[in-house]
Write a structure and sequence with these properties.
Number of helices: 10
Helix content: over 70%
Radius of gyration: 24 Å
Strand content: under 5%
Distance between the termini: 44 Å
Largest sheet: none
Amino acid sequence: MYAAFLLIHSTLRWLVLALALAALVRAIRGVAGRREWLPGDQSIGAWFTGSLDLQLLLGLILYIFLSPFTREAFGDFAAAMRNAPLRFFAVEHITGMIIAIALAHIGRARTKKLVDAPSRHKAALIFYALALVVMLGSIPWPGMPGGRPLFRGFGETASYVGPASAEPSHRANNPNPRDCASFLSAALNAAPADSNRRPSISAAARRASNS
């Protein structure tokens, strides 16, 4: 279920960005051309804010119920703040997106409240542009801490990069059985790299094969 919601959430971002650009282009043309406020201007604002609301709903389901990032972060919030991928998804991503949604809704509310066309286009331009900038800064682009692929395929699961890779000593002291990969990584990191132990391991393997 986590992979399915993540796929929808990741794919929907492109629709949100496309609607944001469309609303912004209409606002720019309205300001530059000094044209009247048309029903299409109101509709694109409604589609933009509606897609943001749907994206927020999916994100909250992931954030509260499904994401291993937030489960890990809430387990030890102080340690999560020292880990860039966990901090991004636990704090920075959701905070930035909520700010972007608020800006978009403020902009649409102002376009509905204002009367003259130039002021409505100007309000849409300012608030939709600010919302887009904040969104672009809050998306986990490839190369960022906890970055995600641009296009996620069906059947592809999220790559979990928690403290097992960033802070192996913390994971070694506090292994989390819920995440087998993290637990195995912690166990390997916790094992002492002592060459004197290798003969005993090899001997045990030979005994097992001869039995």
